[in-house]
Amino acid sequence: MKNIATALRYHDRTKHRPSRYAASLGFLDWTTQPDPFRRYPQTHTTELLHDDTTPPYHLLFGTEPLPKAPLCLESISMLLRYSLGLAAIKRHGRSEWALRCNASSGNLHPTECYLIAPPMDGISCHPTLSHYAPDIHALEVLHTYDTPVIENGFLLVLSSTIWREMWKYGERCWRYCQLDAGHAYGAIKIAATMLGWECSIVSIDTDEMGRWSGLNQHDRFHEDERESPDLMIQIEYPAFNLPEVPPLPSANVLSPSHHHWPIVYEIDEASQGIYPSIKSLDVQRHIPPPSQTAGEIILKRRSAQMMDRSGITQEHFRQLLNASLFCREAPNINFIIFVHRIEGLEKGLYAYLRNPDESIHLRESLDSTFLWKESFKDLYLLKSGDFQGAAQYISCNQEIASDGAFSFGMLCNFSNTLEQYGAVGYKNLYHQCGMIGQLLYLEATSLGLSATGIGCFLDDEFHTLLGICDQHYQSLYHFTIGRAIVDTRLTTLQPYTL
Ligand SMILES: Cc1cc2nc3c(=O)[nH]c(=O)nc-3n(C[C@H](O)[C@H](O)[C@H](O)COP(=O)(O)O)c2cc1C
Predict the structure, then answer these.
(1) Residue 95 burial by CB count (10 A; 0-12/13-18/19+): exposed, middle or buried?
(2) Which residue ranges make up each domain of the chain?
(3) Is the pLDDT assigned to residue 285 strictly greater than 90?
(4) How far apart are CA 12 and CA 434, in angstroms?
(5) How far is the CA of 198 from the centre of ligand 1 (A)?
(6) Which CATH architecture has domain 294-482?
(7) Model confidence over 124-164: pLDDT tens digits?
(8) What are the strands, taking DSSP E only, across 118-211?
(9) Is 453 close to ligand 1, i.e. is its CB under 6 Å away?
């Protein structure tokens, strides 16, 4: 079943419009604020290790992969620490909150991670299914298999605790869960690259993910806090033959009460199915200049809350665009960019074709008066002018979109993807956008710049500006990059210090 109608209905209904944002409570109900950390109190916990030795960031993008780390507790610890672990604790007055290596809309972190691993010293002499608990950097062992079910690599299942996002964002929340899952995948891919490991998404049925990870055992979760399997990742190329797991321990309860947005459950149900096997982009990206270690950059990555309106060099701009090509599993995304302050580049509206195969269709779909004047490889000026006001307006009036050096929308090849894969393809497009976002955050950090993902934007205002009047292309995620103004009122503390 492709469920295209449900995906289109959800997509249209959850667009932010100038006169009406997508339905939500419209205020934050602090009495029901979800616990940001999923825990399984009845499980045995294996503490993971802390190791600061990571390779230089630029070596992650070399033509030769880094030496392969052995599959052991040390390397798994590093993978999780530098992808989904805590990066900093922020304090303001009496409030304290954790920030993680992976970005998440509203810092709500709906994404959970389950690990299916072969026997390993320090975890178990049997294969195990565990949950990663980022608050304590530990694995909660949910199940020990008594037969050899996996070898030569391991699997990660990412799921969304949709309630965490629903609490704040109402009906639009499912979009954010999927963008966040894409960010988590991007973060895991980078950490795996650091360890010399291959990392890819497995094309598999949601039902199987649920049976293998126990996420289909709904009675283990509060009925309003169930987790929905998003995607399964393989590290290296494991051979596996997994059984359905027996009843597993119950999860903690995240909120005392809940509110409901039924359309979210509908799209979640409709987008289950066999995860698309996406043909990768066939591109080479250039290697960034030497900078800090990968670990330093990953931990330093933060979303800018304010930008200082300064410009950036064209070299940095090119490098950022080029970095997005590292996400070869995201071939369906091109960028429409508001260039505000890039040295040597006229202000205006530009198209960056990550996938030049889309060139003809894009030209046909966008405003016929656009110039399509090539500025450098795959970057085209569509229209000159100052788009700061438009960028801010379209980004729900957020100044970060106009005060950055540039901001952009990720324009997705929408209706073709839905026709080909159905609603699960809709979900995959968000994952593609999220993984690009995570990569760009890191690349910006490596250049001494800052970025912020923008989930709040006026969908059709952006489409209208581009002359889009059908569903061929739709923008699913926006982004801004520039120089952050640091909020000096906040104190930053190291995580995991006892
Ligand atoms: C999918 C997504 C959408 C986001 N949307 C916005 C946004 O519209 N406005 C904003 O200021 N920040 C936005 N952010 C940034 C988050 O608020 C930020 O990632 C979160 O507070 C955690 O902070 P950190 O990125 O520094 O770890 C978004 C992040 C993601 C991943």
Answers:
(1) exposed
(2) 4-270, 294-482
(3) no
(4) 20
(5) 28
(6) 3-Layer(aba) Sandwich (3.40)
(7) 999 999 999 999 999 999 999 999 999 999 999 999 999 99
(8) 128-133, 138-144, 150-161, 199-202
(9) yes
